[in-house]
Amino acid sequence: MLSKSIKRKISVLLACIMVLGTNVSVFAADTPTSVSSNGVGTFEGHVSRNVVDITLPTVTVGTSPFSFILDSEGLIEETSAAAYGSDFTFNDDKYVYFKTADKTYGASSSEFTVSNNSSVSCNITLKVDVARGTNDPTLVGSTDDLPEDYSDSQASGDPSLYLGLVVTGDALSNGAAAGTYAISENSVSKTFCVAGEPDNYTVSANGAHDYQFKKLANPAKAWKQIKFNLTGAANKVDDAKGITAPNLTVTWSFAAVEEEAEEAEEEEEEEEVVTTPTDAYGQFSSDNSKVWLALSDQGGIADSAKLTSVKLGDSDVEYTVEDGWILVTWQQMKAAGATWDATGTYSFTFVYDGTTYTADVNPR
């Protein structure tokens, strides 16, 4: 058995060893002098907010909503549509009939709707092409241009036909206005700007870094629309033998406004031409009562017919041509808005043989 003296010595030795081990862990040679960590940048994603979504009307296969009957002699009205049957209805007495429903006809065709369900404005183009025959009636620009109907007291006029494109709805001012457009030539084409509704869209996440500008299930605002149809009228004649009716093709199409604006801007840049005027010669007479202008101090206006414009500042000014010189009197300058300034400069511009010339003239 160990004596108490030996046990005390062992305890002191162990305590010293523990203190020695603790001090070793804080030696400067074992401490890091810097710490670093890498970071990776990640782009969250992109969403296009220019969504084009147009609902165009469709035509049922086998139907022809813009076909029409031209009854220049008024036979349908006169016979109460006996050739068709008692269950047929022919509304209006304008002698032009479009089919609007089963066994129902009227002076205007069924109406079609174009809806802009986009987040951006779109241009809607409506075009009507007319294929005319040699025996077709004359196309007129309005119902007021139709000759009076033939009757016992009214002589028969020439067979004439009015056709119109009728447009209603939300057309913006930077396009064609809603209204009725006569189809008096071989075609009529009108473009209507219809606003989009960005408030009817919201940004949604499809997954990591994948976003979409998505249409709301319940739109906050009503979509903007235009509606269109055709209308017609004719005059009644006593004899329409040999008369035929024209054929029509109606086309509707669309394009985003941004695309057309960019194309127009590119075309303008390509067509833009900068013209620098050519210096000409000009001087006041010795008494300052008139100004002489020419291509040089030797004159040069050899053919007055080639002189197409003379301006003082921005105003046209009267002039005469004498011995190869343009002569402008002070009275003519005053009539163009000039006021006398003995120390001033009077700027003239004239166009000769397609070239623009300028001359700054000071009083003597």
- Ranges where pLDDT stays below 50 over 5 or more residues in a row are none
Largest pleated sheet: 6 strands, mixed
Distance between the termini: 141 Å
Overall, the morphology is flat
Q: Helicity range of the residues?
A: 10-25%
How many DSSP helices? Answer: 4
Radius of gyration: 43 Å
Percent strand equals 35-45%
Task: Name the average pLDDT.
Answer: 87
The secondary-structure element order is HEEHEEEEEEEEEEEEEHEEEEEEEHEE
Specify the structural class. mainly beta
Number of domains: 2
- DSSP strand count: 24
Descriptors:
364 residues, Immunoglobulin-like, 2 domains
Describe the structure.
With 364 residues, the protein is mainly beta. It has two domains: 54-269, no CATH class; 278-361, Immunoglobulin-like (Sandwich), CATH 2.60.40. Helices cover 13% and strands 36% of the residues. The protein has four helices and 24 strands. It has helices at 4-24, 75-78, 257-271, 330-335; strands at 54-55, 68-70, 89-90, 96-101, 104-106, 112-116, 122-131, 138-140, 160-169, 179-182, 187-194, 201-207, 210-215, 224-234, 247-256, 278-279, 281-284, 290-294, 307-312, 315-316, 320-322, 325-329, 346-352, 355-361. The strands form six sheets. Strands 1, 6, 8, 9, 10 and 14 form a six-stranded mixed beta sheet that branches. A five-stranded mixed beta sheet has the order 16-24-23-19-20, with no helix packed on it. Strands 2-4-5-3 form a four-stranded mixed beta sheet, with no helix packed on it. The longest helix has 21 residues, at 4-24. The model has no long low-confidence stretch (mean pLDDT 87).
